[in-house]
Amino acid sequence: MPYYNHHIHSKLPKIGTTIFTTMSNLANDHGAINLSQGFPDFDVDERLKHLAIKYIKKGPHQYAPMQGALSLREAIYEKVNAMYNASYDVENEITITAGATQAIYTAISAIIKENDEVILFTPAYDCYEPAIEICGGKPVFFQLQAPDFAINWEKVKKLISPKTRMIIINSPHNPTGSVLTKKDFIALEKIISDTGIIVLSDEVYEHLVYDDHTPQSVVSYPKLVSSAIAVFSFGKTFHVTGWKLGYVLAPENLMHEFRKVHQFNVFSCNHPFQLAIAEYIKDEENYLKLSAFYNKKRKLFLEMVNASRFKAVPSKGTYFQLLNYEEISSLPDIEMAKKMTIENKLASIPISVFYHAKIDQKFLRFCFAKKDETLKKAGEILTQL
Ligand code: PMP
Ligand code: GLN
After folding, report:
1. How many angstroms does the Cα of residue 101 sit away from the middle of ligand 1?
2. How far, in Å, CA of 197 to CA of 218, rounded?
3. Ranges of each domain in the chain
């Protein structure tokens, strides 16, 4: 198609195609086992499918309310209350979104103005930084260190300036699999106290925690809750990443600003599927069983890794496992991930892309939300390297 040269000054000059799209495409092109992009390769619960079909047949097929279907907001109220003892107002403090990506983008656009600073922990999930930059905000990076990727809050405190408007936390953490503990939330409470800083808390892997960890949410900390926008995703919780539905919890004043933007960038989300989830979520077993379900897969994957030359510190949360390949190759991680996809037929995600400074510590991220047979095939490849 011929085009006119508009001399566009790109708002995101350094941004290309996401690593998830890049690696999934490469995996497809080369027939590789795809442990790169985070999505399950097993089937969705038949009961959830039946509910979706029920509401497709019966309707509604027209716009959902802007803030989300009432039955779903009510069901979320119950879930959040039961899990975290937090009471969000159904009318004014809960909004259904088109997944967590839209929720995060909307929250950042609603709050961040030119020259506002936002503290980010790197390696960071890829959608935070561009959203900040598009609003003219300035990301301020705190670099997490292997092997535990824990946060030193005293050092974070030193990054806070009069321009700091927001801190973005993500626990369980993608891509490292680390989790924040009660101690972390209490330290965060202290450092933001009386600062007016807003905490954007990405909790899409809330149920996926292992060993002695329990789900921790910003919403259960009374001193944080009044300054927090918490983001969740049904895609992760119910194995339906393609449904693109999630939700946001925030106190009324923050939600009021959130919805000002939400109503113009999506208005409302898929109506019949909201009703299907509203019914499905009422059975708490549907999300409480997730941790045990994924823990089995994590163990199976780690057993195979232990028989290989890859090195792993077991993931504490999410459905991702970082592997260090220093003993196998000195290639940069992006090249290693591409080489393994093309030559060994196993796709993963290189971690340097999640660092602003593109730091390469020879880590690859593998998604274990896969059928056992897929994980076993991947294990065979890992042990041959
Ligand atoms: N945050 C994190 C940490 C993620 O891993 C993802 C990917 N699911 C998202 C947000 C986006 O979630 P969604 O697919 O619901 O947009
Ligand atoms: N959250 C998924 C992951 O980390 C990817 C989602 C996407 O491709 N945008 O792999």
Report:
1. 6
2. 14
3. 19-44+288-384, 46-283
What is the C-alpha to C-alpha distance for residues 353 and 124, in angstroms, rounded to an integer? 9
- The CATH code that applies to domain 19-44+288-384 is 3.90.1150.10
Write out pLDDT tens, residues 279-332.
999 999 999 999 999 999 999 999 999 999 999 999 999 999 999 999 999 999
pTM over 0.90, yes/no = yes
Q: Residues 268-294, buried b or exposed e (16+ Cβ, 10 A)? A: bbbbbbbbbbbbbbeeeebbeebbeeb
- Check if the beta carbon of residue 312 is closer than 8 Å to that of residue 322: yes
CATH 2.60.40.10 assigned to domain 46-283? The reply is: no
Identify which ligand lies nearest to the alpha carbon of 245. 1
Identity of the residue numbered 188: L
Is the Cβ atom of 236 under 6 angstroms away from ligand 1?
yes
